[in-house]
Amino acid sequence: MANRQTTERTMRGLFFVIATASIGILFLIMLFLFREGLPIFKTVSVKDFIFGKYWYPTSDPPDFGIFSLIVASVAVTAVSGAMAVPLGVMTAIYLSEIAMPRVSQIVKPVVELLAALPSVVIGFFGMVLVAPFLQRVFDLPTGLNLFNASLMLAFMSIPTICSISEDAIHSVPGALREASVALGATQLQTIVRVVVPASLSGISTAVILGLSRAVGETMVVLMVAGGAAMLPGSLFDPVRPMPASIAAEMAEAPIGSEHYYALFATGIVLFFFTLLFNIVADTIAHRYAQVGEASL
Amino acid sequence: MDTEIKMSAQDLDFYYGEFKALHSINMNFSPCQVTALIGPSGCGKSTFLRCLNRMNDLIPISRVEGRITLDGENIYASDVDVVMLRRKVGMVFQKPNPFPKSIFDNVAYGLWVNGIKDKVFVQERVEESLKQAAIWDEVKDRLQASALGLSGGQQQRLCIARALAVKPEVVLMDEPASALDPIATQKIEELIHQLKETYTIIIVTHNMQQAARVSDVTAFFYMGKLIEAGETDLIFTRPKKKQTEDYITGRFG
Q: Containing H/E element for B200?
């Protein structure tokens, strides 16, 4: 009896220690990010850092303005979203509502498998195949640009968007479809007016999770975005999103230098971006969870 | 009995894959009458009901043989527009299934999907349908509220209003009161009484008192076969078949 109680107590203690450790370490990393990033604001004001147009960290005197990097991240995410959201959601609708059950049983796991493609492979593909193609077709100075990066990121987010949307659409009760059809609605009307609205919270969550994968993705943008720290004038200009900038420069920035602090501060900005995405996803998932018939 | 025929099944067989769920059903439905389909679970009465507006089309492995006619026309003929058929033959389901939309949008839905855009007309029809379904007074002040906030009985009357809004000629009801409490059930039954002045109603029910109360004609199904059909009074007082008598007196089922 006493023995069993000791085991219980040990087990509880063990789980507590493990949980505390993993959460604590993550928290410490965040603390470290802020400790290493905030000192840059002794040299540059927050406003100049975020809205400054010039990123010349190694010039003399250096310029630490990451506005073009932020614009690059936002642009790459938005353009990839514009491509990935319609494709991902429509694929999900096809798999859940239109395809024969046997087809979707095979295709859905395959789509989910595509999410496992390492980003470096996708980046490599964009570099070796897509970039020369874009350069030739559109007669560009370089095929490594905003459009190429967005396209590659879209490929990365489609599996996430498609798979989670499909789950949400699939969980819409069959009774709603029957009710719609029994009122003389066509299959298309049923999908557009009943099924999609009923699963909108799940679809929104899927979209945001897909996009947040794109906004934080480093390897692909490092390889195919072109790396120019300037405001893009068109879809085919090279850009330098925040993660690419950090990854490319971190090895060269001496620890404790202003450049080093500036890169960590860029990391802080990126952290707030992904945090925003997660909060929005969480809010949507919760707000509609009780009202809608279907959710994640 | 009225000799006029609204709907009719002729030698109707129905298969789920290899399983034969209905065996050569022959039955007529007269206009402006309530027909109750009774029988134990799995006897095929719901399957038969869903053949009448081709809801079983949604089941990929199902197959129909024989004919069902609406005003003399075979609804399984290859040139039939299923959407038009379902507009004429409406359906109310066992479990209330309002859309996660506002009360107004639920009732207006059938009009919208049939291409009616005239706002005034839609408003009038929504009000008329809600009144017909005896729920207008309870919801008239909150038409824009979510239908999911209504009680089960209200939701079911809303679903009836939704079905009536497209002005069907026949209304199929699949155990419409089985998920409701006695008071809500009574309201639905009163409603059926009023509706039969305008509509041909076919109702599946497990509850024999309900069949006796609401219907003019009762049909008893057993093991996928139509055992006996006739005027409700006669079926419940002097059934011709032993199986029917056993069922209605509660000896099995």
A: strand B200-204
Is the pLDDT at A295 greater than 60, yes or no? no
Chain B interface, mutation test: which of A103, A183, A188, A194, most B Cβ atoms within 10 Å?
A183
How many Å apart are CA B73 and CA B50, to the nearest integer?
18
Number of compact structural domains in chain A: 2
A183 closest CB neighbour out of B60, B84, B162: B162
Q: Which of B80, B99, B116, B117 to mutate to test the interface with A (most CBs of A within 10 A)?
A: B99
**Contacts with B98 from chain A: Cβ below 8 Å:** 179
Q: Residues A89-140: pLDDT tens digits?
A: 999 999 999 998 899 999 999 998 888 889 999 999 999 999 999 999 999 9
Residue of A nearest to B54 (CA): A182
Query: Does A182 contact chain B (CB < 8 Å)?
Result: yes
Domain match, A29 and A58 both: no
**Mean local confidence (pLDDT), B184-205:** 92
Q: Six-digit token pair at A20?
A: 């505390």
Tell the residue number behind the tokens 């959407």, with chain if given: B83
Residues 6+ apart with CB under 8 A from A239: A68, A71, A72, A75, A76, A145, A146, A149, A225, A226, A227, A228, A230, A232
Q: Are residues A91 and A19 in the same domain?
A: no
The model's pTM is 0.83
pLDDT in tens, A41-66: 999 999 999 999 999 988 888 999 99
A178 and A249 assigned to the same domain: yes
How far does CA A252 lie from the centroid of its chain?
Answer: 27
Domain with A91 in it: 46-295
Query: Do residue A38 and residue A184 come from a single domain?
Result: no
Question: Do A173 and A250 fall within a single domain?
Answer: yes
CB-CB: which of B90, B98, B148 is closest to A182?
A: B90
* Residue A161 and residue A15 share a domain: no
CB contact under 8 A, A184 and B101: no
What are the pLDDT digits (tens) for A13-39? Answer: 999 999 999 999 999 999 999 999 999
Read out DSSP for A216-258? H--HHHHHHSB---S--SSTTS-B--HHHHHHHHTTTSPTTSH
Q: Do A173 and B97 touch (CB under 8 A)?
A: yes
Asked if A35 and A56 sit in the same domain, the reply is no
Q: Rounded to an integer, what distance in angstroms lies between the CA atom of residue B181 and that of residue B158?
A: 16
Is ipTM > 0.95 here? Answer: no
* CB–CB contact B110 A183 (8 Å): yes
Instruction: Enumerate the residues of chain A whose CB falls inside 8 A of the CB of residue B83.
Output: 184-186
Residue A58 maps to which CATH number? 1.10.3720.10
* Single residue among A42, A58, A74 that ends a domain in this structure: A42
Do A183 and A129 share a structural domain? yes
